[in-house]
Amino acid sequence: MPLCPVLTTERLILRPFTANDIDAIFTLYSDEETNTFLPWFPIKTRQEAEDLFARRYAAPPPDGGYRYAVCLRTDDIPIGYVHLSESDSRDLGYGLRSDCWGRGIAAEAAAAVICQAQKDGIPFVTATHDVRNPASGRVMQKLGLRYCYSYVEQWQPKNIPVTFRLYQRNLDGCEKRMYTKYWEQSAIHYVE
User: Would 37 disulfide with which of 128, 130, 145, 171, CB 3.0-4.6 Å?
Assistant: First the structure.
């Protein structure tokens, strides 16, 4: 994948995070409600936000994927993120400040990234959500991803068992393809 080109939608700008976004990163990653169903613990200090930026956003992703700050066009301040991994799973992930939920922003941002991925020749994307977070599953469905299976994983660094639902969308017309690695790795897996 190429470096993340800036993407725009009707309401949003998707761009790489910059060092000027530390305060927004702190607000996003310290939001307890936002981070309930994400693997990491909420950060507590601005220094942790600086460390997170340096570790996660200061350089292009090591796997070549996309990492976008989701900003409203009105102020260009990050309110969330969308990531797409270049790893074999092509995992799509997103997070949004809880005060921005319920407005279709996550779906709008992720749709723009999926469109770019398709233009760049990415054959498919997957996404997973904790079964206790059905709102995230509705975003995946809105994006045209289809449910494939559920599996249990010991989620790190929180070290808790989580049942995930895996969704997938094939972008290259190969509708029979299904990413099965999580199914194969999990001792507990099933189709609901």
Answer: 130
